[in-house]
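Good morning,

Both structures are done.
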Amino acid sequence: MRSATPKVLHTLAGRSMLGHALATARGLDPGRVLVVVRHERDQVAAHVAEVDPHALLADQDDIPGTGRAVQVAMTALDAAAQAAAAADTTVGSATHAQVQGAVVVIAGDVPLLDAGTLQELLEAHHADGNAVTVLTTQVADPTGYGRILREPGTGDVLGIVEEKDADDAQRAITEINSSIYVFDATVLRSALGRLGRDNAQGEVYLTDVLAIARADGGHVRALQTDDPVLVEGVNDRVQLSVLRAEMNRRILEGWMREGVTVVDPASTWVDVDVELERDVTILPGTQLHGATVVREGATVGPDTTLTDVEVGERASVVRTHGSLAVIGPDARVGPFAYLRPGTVLGESGRIGTFVETKNAQIGTGSKIPHLSYVGDATIGEYTNIGAASVTVNYDGVNKHHTTIGSHARTGADNMFVAPVTIGDGAYTGAGSVIRRDVPSGALGVSAGAQRNIEGWVLRARAGTPAAAAVARPSVDDELSPQARAERGRATAAAADVPPTPPPALPDSGSTAKDSAR
């Protein structure tokens, strides 16, 4: 993989390859699950503890090969069986307790293997009374895989030959070993004790168990799958990308058959743990990750990425990035919204264009339409937050909370300096910096009275395009006589001609427009 990350920890569809293997194993409802670790042992062990805390671990030593991996696995499983027997006071001596029954062995780099296929393999093993049952498939190019050697007539498996040990005739065989097996525990334990390293790679081959079991009189048979991708392994990032795309295709196909509309599967990515309900519509460029849930009738996309987000019935989420958030039924989000963790938008609520929210509880019917940041806040029902508003929640050391009640109306360009509370039904004026609580039903205003300095542009910015625009005739007949006089003086000064006298003020019986006429 050419990576600092161990191969089995590379991800597809929201899980590591090892995570997929563990989920598949758990699908059999096994007595125990054990993971053999070696390369980058600590990273892999930590990941196992995170995704499957009940799985056992066994450390492979420096002796290479899959056979050695299963040797240490069986030793650990038998030790676990002895410990369990010792803890059970209803049984006698636990000294000789060992794992009994079927032992299933799968690889950690075969991510598309599913529990259904594994269950079929296990059922075939029991039905035929086999010592060993191996999952195989046919491929056009078997290069790199072990070849299945069958007995003419019966079709029973004689053994498996690795490519480096195969002759030309054996290399021509297109039925390959998937490295997925079911063993009888007693047969496996006996054969493992007789494995050697006399092969081209100097490894302990697990595949040699099949020939030993057959020589001991056991039945060794194969179950062949007609879906080669199920057993395809990953050895580089090219193969990983191919299987990632194939897994996504299968996930989307499954959801479409359940009643979900995916407008453009080629640009849509959905993780394996995502839940979609019927009549959901997924528009192009959408990625749904983690434990995201989209309820019936909702529309997501285009160009939306949601991670661990719940989208309510009939909601619409457009060009939005969100994580660890809840969007209520009939709510609307976006375009260009950013929902950070802790955002909860109530039923029929609205988070609009260029709005960022974090740790915000937004009540039923409330709206934050545009250009705002709402963090560490609680907003009641049917409240409207004016454009370009900010909850100023951080003082450089601590985060503080803003509370805005129900049916409130806050003005545009408001700064709410937390901690602060705006009561139910309260209003705030545009451009206000709200530093103190606004009681219910009150109007909070912090801006001073506006003052216009007329003629300032012509005096202070003479020679600029702005001044030229003021000086030329325009449709500003509503200017006061004083302002028109000021403009005339500035124009005359610029032309070096005597200024025009100011117009006479109208008498008490006429209007300004009459005087202008």
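Second structure follows.
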Amino acid sequence: MSQPLFRKKSIETIQKEYDRGQEDGQPMNLKKVLTVRDLTFMGVAAVIGAGIFSTIGKAAFEGGPGVIFLFLITAVTCGFTALCYAEFASRVPVSGSAYTYSYVTFGELIAWVIGWALILEYAIGNIVVAISWSAYFNNLLIGMHIHLPDWLTIGYQTAKIKYDSAVAAGLPLDDLVYSHAPALGPLKFIINLPAFLIVVIITILAYIGISESKKSANFMVGLKLVLLAFIVIFGFYLIVSDGTTDNWSPFLPNGMEGVLRGVSSVFFAYIGFDAISTTAEECKNPRRDMPKGMLYSLLICTVIYILVALVITGLVNYKEFEGVADPLAYVFNKINMPKVGLIIAVSAVAASTSVLLVFQIGQPRIWMSMSRDGLLPKRFAKVSKRYKTPAFATLITGLLVGIPTLFIDDLLMTDLTSIGTLFAFVLVCSGVLALPKINKAKDQFKLPYINARYLIPLFVTIFIYFFRSRLMAAFENLSTESYEEILFILFIVVAVIAAVLSFVKRYSLIPVLGTLCCLYLMITIPAKSWLVFFGWMAMGLLVYFAYGYRHSRLRKNA
């Protein structure tokens, strides 16, 4: 039973399928049009989105100006992961991202689990982005004196949560959306129409073709970079001229513990750079260009995030960001500059639109790869003869994202998306350790080898020393500890095992550091999100054993 579950695909088999370009007699080649510049812009398009315009406020409230350290920590973690993705991309130049990479290194069952987890990153993550897009788009309309009914601009679940909270607190209910929305029998008619419509438009664009999507993404990236550059330059000018640099003191009001409390919000801001790897089959030279595109986009985005975080915490005291969903707009409205707020709204709309586009491109290509392997029905692998895109998978992705945006609350999805992404990152980083050594071409990316034999044990020892009080307290009160502390103990156990294996097997430093950093970020996410995540994984296993296991091409060809 265990052998078919963990049967692996060889890189040679994947390469032959890719070169042959045929699947059951049907063409499976996608249009190759993407260059380093396109991939870099696509990475920036995916990363600079809802995070910088919404979740950055929550992180700033928790960590103060020192939240920039969290951006650096997260960027380094993503950097390790990006290098591991780049190593895989240089060897396995096909669509599928972490799913395909896991099939090569860990086998079919783990590959399915990763594919299922990536739905959290791309499809469900896009729900959050679409809702954020709707909020800024509505602000933009208000700035143009266009007012949509409020029961068409918010999800039913969000409106109900606010209503229930007001009832529990004994607050007035007359001005709440839920109170005056039209009713359909016993139910209130409350939908987020703009969020749904933008998903429909983006799905159509992703369906039409990668060339059109590339041009649109590049335009939107250029626009938001120009607008963000203006916000940063103008913001620093105001900080210096108005003498508000005192807002940067204290720089770490809640210490590093406060900074790390915002990890889920900040990591959500970085989600998406790995979406570049899903477009491998549409890249002109994936072995050379994809690694560059990932690393360039990650560097650009980190610089932007740090500068923007310094601007908002310099203009307004960090304490004011509690519960603020649109921190950039809030800052400039606070200092009586609503016209700048209008510019921010335009930038936010462009940024969120580009994120939606990249994610809507990424998810269908993962499903396409899973379908090719027989783990999903054949229709998911069908490529449009006219547009050269995974047609059916793109439409299903549109439905999966669009329908929930009408009624769901976005805050419930952020942590879940982050944990799913980190899980994929852990397997990609650790998977690199299982790849055989090969001789590569001169222009092909090669992951630098740094012997981890002494460094990883040293780093783990230092980490345990600095967190010894927490570790001792967790062991002393093990029976009464929260899930977070139990996860922390498990992380220490894994880190010690990694240190021992690194010493014995002389592992490469970067993949081990990437694995441990992602694992640590995972344990900082609230335990309730872990419970939902495990539930999601259990559902995925049911689907696999009900369909994927029996229809697996690798199993049938054995």
